[in-house]
Amino acid sequence: MIKNLKKFDAFLSSVDLKFYRGRFLPIKIVEMDMPPNIQAINLLYKVYGIEKRFIDYDSFYKEYLSSLKKEIEIFRLKIGMCKDCFYKGLPARIYRTWASIITQIHAGYVAESVFGEGTVAMSGELDHEGADFQVKYKGKILNYQVKKKSFSGEVRRGKGGVKKKIDGEFLDIIYEVPSSEYFDNPRKKDGEYKLPYRRFQDNKELERFPNGFIVFTPYAFLEKKKEMDNKLK
Predict the structure, then answer these.
(1) DSSP 8-state assignment for residue 181
(2) 217 and 207 in contact (C-beta within 8 Å)?
(3) Domain count, the chain
(4) What pLDDT, on a 0 to 100 scale, did the predictor assign at position 162?
(5) pTM summary value
(6) Rounded distance between C-alpha atoms, residue 34 and residue 224, angstroms
(7) How far apart (Å, rounded) are the C-alpha atoms in residues 84 and 76?
(8) Which GO MF terms does the UniProt record name (predicted)?
(9) pLDDT digit string (tens) for 52-65?
(10) Any idea what DSSP says for residue 193?
């Protein structure tokens, strides 16, 4: 994964977030719980984590739709939603999952750049067990969970808690991101930076690409590695 981190960075930097937000943000039709057999998580880990194919969202969505066409249609018929409405809302729903999960997968790439080649595992199965990615380092297992934090202080995990007990220590890394308006207009009338912008600028664990995509930096994992190295000296 380490040698592909730069490719992943370049890919995320190329995503037209403004375009996708304008296209999908107003569409919230398919918002009900989706059964595991038609969720996009397994395919996301397969494409971006295992196969390391950094394809754009539209290409991913076509692959998702093609691979699960029968199962998706069975679900649509079960919930009784009209075909036009469902297939208008589904790409918006899957996009939100896509944007969230590829951020987590990228964090796994960054973690491996810190802990070393071959130390990180990620999969849909691990994700469902509560680990967005897992690090095995010097005989220890670290299960990392990405938790989103609002600027009101609320911390939440997007997919719920741990569903199945797995070995290892669980560690949270916090994804605290102000809305894009703070980057477009970061200063108050008196010229000082607004608090959300200032807090983000002071956060060494996150960085923002020019297109607005925000990712974790190596700093998010370096302190834990140093702690483990010191204990083993």
Answers:
(1) H
(2) yes
(3) 2
(4) 44
(5) 0.91
(6) 36
(7) 11
(8) DNA binding; type II site-specific deoxyribonuclease activity
(9) 999 999 999 999 99
(10) B
